[in-house]
Design brief:
alpha/beta, eight-stranded parallel β-barrel, 8 helices, 35% helix, globular
Length: 208
């Protein structure tokens, strides 16, 4: 597998910012972060396909221009078409092994998990565990203890990275890392603001 270890996974969301603003904020994020420390995840499943393709092209170009990574949610065909670094799979998506067979051994593959009973080492680079610190679609937050328990399952030998998602901001990043996360995934703390510097500083990945 490709040795990709981003500290921050930044997830696009057109409910937080319209596409043109997402693009501008993605470019700024990619530019001010240490190269290789950020992976931008193109989600936006509600966008029409043509609009999603165009947003993906622009965000992917911004990421690669500044030596950052990017991936596409669920759509392996779009990841291949756009030359993305990989794909993020939902809990009901195809198996990581099947995605890797299509994308290649060097592709980034992450998977979503919302239940500790479904945490296990897999043929994925990373697991995004959510929601950690904020409720999601009526589901209560799992809390930091869930990260500690997931970390105990995903030993360093497994090679599977662990990311905290849900309610992440500059003020709680350190707690997530201390609980065992390899990094964090965020939406509003990145794309809901013109100034993601505080989050990058908390993660110690701001360039300069």
């Amino acid at each position: 597998m490709k040795r990709v270890r981003p500290r921050l996974i930044a997830i696009t969301d057109t409910d937080v910012a319209e596409p043109a603003l997402l693009e501008r904020r993605a470019l700024r994020l990619a530019r001010i972060a240490i190269p290789g420390s950020v992976l931008i995840q193109l989600r936006d499943l509600g966008l029409p396909l043509r609009a999603r393709l165009e947003l993906g092209r622009r965000i992917g170009a911004a990421a690669h221009e500044h030596q950052q990574y990017w991936c596409v949610n669920d759509r392996i065909d779009l990841a291949l078409l756009l030359g993305a670094d990989g794909v993020h799979l939902g809990e009901r998506g195809i198996l990581p092994a099947d995605a890797r067979a299509l994308l290649g051994e060097r592709a980034w593959i992450s998977i979503a998990r919302h239940d500790l009973n479904r945490i296990s080492a897999s043929n994925a680079n990373a697991i995004l565990l959510a929601p950690i610190l904020a409720a999601r679609k009526g589901a209560p937050p799992l809390g930091l203890e869930a990260l500690r328990r997931a970390r105990a399952i995903l030993t360093s030998e497994s090679g599977t990275l662990l990311y905290a998602l849900g309610g992440i901001d500059a003020g709680n990043v350190r707690s997530c890392l201390e609980a065992g996360a390899d990094g964090v995934a965020a939406i509003r703390a990145v794309f809901g603001t013109d100034a993601p510097e505080r989050l990058l500083e908390a993660l110690q990945i701001r360039a300069g």
